[in-house]
Amino acid sequence: MRLTYHTIDLKLKHPFRISRSVTELKKNVIVQIDEGVGEAAPSQYYGENADTVIEFLEKVKGQLGDDPFQIESILSNLDKKVSGNFSAKAAIDMALYDLVAKRLNLPLYKLLGLDGKAPLVTSYTIGIDTPEKMKEKTKQAKDFLVYKVKVGVENDVEMVKAVREVTDANIRVDANAGWSAEEALEKIDQLKEYRIEFVEQPVDPKDKAGLKKLKEKAGIPIIIDEQLMTSKDIPDFVGLCDGINIKLAKCGGIREALRMIHVARAHGLKVMLGCMIESSVGIAAAAHLGSLADFLDLDGNLLVSNDPYEGLRLDKGKYYLSDLPGLGIVAKQK
User: Fold this and answer.
1) Measuring CA to CA, how many Å separate 252 from each of 75, 78, 79, 274?
2) What secondary structure letter does DSSP report for 239?
């Protein structure tokens, strides 16, 4: 099999600010294995960028063999040879699944034996900004049924209040580990007035005592994201949260995401499928697993102005999967 790649620069519609950083341009890497396509959406927070992805791809591109149907063997071999590099591995994983499904003339969800007909409700993320600008962003995305509001800064309550003033839709908040445990309890208590569905990553994931206290006292579901990378990490957070956020670029792709879903269910945890800033390639790959999740936050492609791919239909905050073979994604005509 022949592996090729190229970079893409995704431009954010608005500067995307969370509690620890702001992004205006995201450099991702598109991987092609024969006719299969995948995407690496690296995050500096997890020690990756486009350069590390390319370095990894150069190292392994001649080691994939010639049979794409050997997905398990190929990916296991990559894990044994090189640790980490999860977004790079995710791109190879997606491309292999896309390739196999295309060879069988099946959409990916059918290859996996999943439901692909039901609409998939995704949240739309409102990044940190002034309350007035957050109101305006929410109005611009008025057809969504769920909003995820980034918090973790001083005027959290004012920001969520501003969003609630212009929508009756569900609101979730994500602090990206921006609070201490005591601050989180105080902020969550204040935010309940605005009918918050759940809180994502309220505190540093290393603060296990803080997470335990929040799980016991917050009175609202707690979802864990940061530092929960693969299925091996899940047992460490049992009893400390109500659910986990799985991202293909964070765990290594579809293969590991499926494993994480099953491990989470075995521990009685809710499942959220999330994303990085990605094109429709990475978002579609996650969306094909959507029927297995309780919550979807697959909006990375919606936050950019120049997504170079299409095929994942969105209508009033709901995704509809394509019945085209593989991921169902094609490059836009220039």
Assistant:
1) 9, 11, 9, 13
2) T
Average confidence (pLDDT) over 79-93: 95
Distance CA 151, CA 284 (A): 27
Q: Euclidean distance between the first and final Cα of the chain, in Å?
A: 28
Q: Which of the pair, 280 or 22, is modelled with greater confidence?
A: 280
Which pLDDT tens digit goes with each residue over 65-80? 999 999 999 999 999 9
Query: Counting every residue, how long is the chain?
Result: 334
Q: Alpha carbon 98 to chain centroid distance? A: 18
Q: Between 100 and 17, whose confidence is greater?
A: 100
Tell me the pLDDT of the chain averaged across its residues. 96
- DSSP letter at 46 equals G
Cα gap 8→250, rounded to integer Å: 19
SS3 312: coil
Judging by beta carbons within 10 Å of its beta carbon (0-12, 13-18, 19+), is residue 111 exposed, middle or buried?
middle
Helix (H), strand (E) at residue 125: strand 123-126
The pLDDT value given to residue 334: 73
Q: pTM for this structure?
A: 0.96
The Cα–Cα gap between 68 and 139 comes to: 45
Q: Which of 196, 216, 251 is nearest to 84 (CA)?
A: 251
For residues 231, 237, 241, 247, the Cα torsion angle rounded to the nearest 10 degrees is -30
Token pair of 54 as six digits: 């390319």
Write out the DSSP string of 259-282: HHHHHHHHTT-EEEE---S--HHH
**CA 197 from centroid of its chain's CA atoms:** 18
For the chain, counts of helices (H) and of strands (E): 11, 16
Residue 22 has pLDDT above 90, yes or no: no
What domains sit in the chain, N to C, each tagged with a CATH number? 3-106 (3.30.390.10), 111-331 (3.20.20.120)
Rg, C-alpha atoms of the chain = 19
> How far, in Å, CA of 215 to CA of 204, rounded?
14
pLDDT digits (tens, 9 = 90+) for 174-225: 999 999 999 999 999 999 999 999 999 999 999 999 999 999 999 999 999 9
